[in-house]
Amino acid sequence: MKDNEFKKLGPLTDKTNSFIDDLHKSGALDALLNELKSVTNQLPESYSVSIDFQLNVCDSNKETSVPLLQTGFVAGKGIELYRHYGDTATQKYLVDGEMCIIPDDYCPHCWEEWDLKFMNPTCDNCGKKIDGDMIAWG
Ligand SMILES: [Zn+2]
């Protein structure tokens, strides 16, 4: 998404993350998280179960979405419940003369997942090339 669009979403992303922190600290999630711990203690040790919150931006023209925040709580047999964060590191790109920002494992042109761009320099979905159709910035 365009740089200015991403910047408009930053405060909402931060507030969402803080709100989940506040909910957790307030005890409002205790009953749910206690149930999570109870159920996972009845499952095999190799299992973990998470309750996740995501903030996604969907573009109906592209028919896909990208996550800006992925966080939640994980429990498993024999491990303490903990807060986890998905990888939401972002990268700037110059695409068609416009500065864009998107999670670094997504294509800035079509918004589909595209990991390891420097080893796999062409997007499997749209065929755009890094350092050809777009330039990683910064
Ligand atoms: Zn693409």
UniProtKB/TrEMBL annotation:
Domain of life where this protein originates? Bacteria
Under which name does UniProt file this protein?
Answer: Uncharacterized protein
Which species expresses this protein natively?
Answer: Limihaloglobus sulfuriphilus
